[in-house]
Amino acid sequence: MNGELKKWEGQTAEVLSTISISEDYKPTLLGSVPNMDAESANEVLLSACDAFGKGKGAWPTMKVSDRISCMEKFVEQMKTKRDEVVKLLMWEIGKNLPDSEKEFDRTVEYIYDTIEDYKQLDRDSAKFLNRDGVYAHIRRGPLGVVLCLGPYNYPLNETFALLIPALIMGNTAIFKPAKHGVLLITPLMEAFRNSFPRGVVNIIFGRGREVAAPIMQSGRIDVLALIGNSKSAIALQDQHPNKNRLRLVLGLEAKNPAIILPDADLDLAVEECINGTLSFNGQRCTALKIVYVHEDIREEFNKRFAAKVDALKLGNPWEAGVKLTPLPEPDKPTYIQGLIDDAKEKGAEILNKKGGETTDNYIFPAVLYPVTEEMRVYKEEQFGPVIPVKLFNDIDQILDELALSNYGQQVSLFGKDVYELSPLIDTLVNLVCRVNLNSSCQRGPDVFPFTGRKDSAVGTLSVHDALRSFSIRTFVATKDNASNKEILEKLLETKVSNFISTDYIL
Ligand SMILES: O=C[C@H](O)COP(=O)(O)O
C-alpha cells in the first residue's frame, strides 16, 4: 500500500469469480492483484520496520490524538466505498446481500468502537505512581511490527478486527488478505494511503508460503495475528527463528454444539439451529457444527428441522430471500460429499429430501442422523453445508465429549427448566468460553469477548481485549527527588514528550 504497487505489474494473479449457480455458469474474471514473491515481500517488511523504527518512527511515538485523527480520516473515507466493497463480498465469496452489508457496517462500527475504547484505555492505563522513593509514569504502548492474516469467510471484518486495534495502539502492520476476498480490499487502499504515514499499513498479496513465510523467517515480526486454521498458524509460527518472542493473537477452529434438552421450545430451537448451522452456508468458525438432540424429542425435532432445511432458498448472493449461496472454495462440495458418504457407510441417513444435491459449485445441506463418534463428520470441522445430528440420553455423555474435544469456543443450550439449566451452565462455561442460552452461537456484538479454549483461540479478540493484546505496559521511572520532579514538571509543561504528557485526557 505504501510500497509501490507498480513494481509488481506484470506478475499479476487473476481472481476468478466462482459465484453463480446458473446453468450456464462460467467463471468470470473479476480482477487481478500482484502475485508477489519473497523479495517484494521483504521490501514490504522493511517498510513496516522502518515506520516502527525500533520505536523511533513517527507512528509509535506520535500523540494519541494524532493517531486517532488518522484512524478517523480512514473510516470516513472507507464509508464512501460501501457499495463497491459489498458487491465484491457477494461476487468474491458468495455472501448474501444482507450479510455482506452487515459485514461492512459492523466493520465501520468496530473501528468507531475501537477509537472510543482506545481513548478509555489510554485514560485508564496512564498512571503516575510513587512508591518506595521511585516515581513512575506508566502508559500502554505498541509491540512492534504485526503480521495480520484474515480468513475468507470474513475477509473485511476479521482482517480489520486484527489490523485496526494493532494500528491504533502504535504498531505498524503488514496484512495479507485471504485468497478469496482479496479484491474487496483494493477499493480501500487509497483511503489507507491518504490517512496513514508511509509504511504504517502494508499489504502483501500471494501465497502464504511465498510471501508470509519469508517475512516470518526474518525474525522481525513481533506479533502474529491470524484468524483461520491452526495448520496455517503453526506453519507460520514455525518459520520464526525465535518463537518465544513472538506474541500470538489467534482465532482458530471450533466445533460448537447445540444441545436440545427435552423441554426446549422446539420451534425456537429449530429456527436458531437453522441460522446457527447454515448462515453463510456454515462457513463460520462460530457456526453450530453438531446438534445433540435428546431422545424424548428426537423424532419431532428431526422432522421439523429437516423440513426447514429443505425449504431454504438457494440462489445467487444478490437475489432476495436467498439463504444458501455458492461456495467460494471449488473443492468444498467434493469434501462435503466425502463426509456424507463416510457417514452413510457407517450407518447415518440423510433426513432431508434435498440433502446432498449438487448444483455447480454448491452442495445442498444434508442433515445426517444418527451421527456417531467414528464418523468423519463428527471429528472434523466441516466449515460448510452439512449438519450432523447426534442422539443423547444423558447430558454427562455430552460433557465428557466436550471435555475430550480439541476445541472449546461456544455452546448453544436449549431448554427451560432453571434447575436443570443452572448446573449445566456452570459446567459448560468451564469447557467453552460462551454459552448461548436458547440462541445460536455467534461472535457478536463485537464488543463482547471473542475467544476460545484449547485449539480454538490464543488471546481474545473483542474491541476491548484486542487493544490489550496488541500492546504492552511501558513506563518511565525515576528517583523521587526535587531535581527529577523539576524535570518531569518541565516535560509536562513544555509538551515536548508525547509519552510524558497528559494527551490521554481526550
Ligand atoms: O468465522 C468466525 C466469525 O468470527 C464468526 O462471526 P459471526 O458469528 O458474527 O458470524
TrEMBL record:
Molecular function (Gene Ontology), one example: oxidoreductase activity, acting on the aldehyde or oxo group of donors, NAD or NADP as acceptor
Tagged with keyword Oxidoreductase: yes
Every Aldehyde dehydrogenase domain range: 19-471
Pfam families in alphabetical order: Aldedh
Superkingdom as given in the UniProt entry: Bacteria
CDD domains: ALDH_F11_NP-GAPDH
Keywords carried by this UniProt record: Oxidoreductase
InterPro entries: Ald_DH/histidinol_DH (IPR016161), Ald_DH_C (IPR016163), Ald_DH_CS_CYS (IPR016160), Ald_DH_N (IPR016162), Aldehyde_DH_dom (IPR015590), Aldehyde_DH_Superfamily (IPR050740)
UniProt family annotation: Belongs to the aldehyde dehydrogenase family.
Protein name (database record): Glyceraldehyde-3-phosphate dehydrogenase
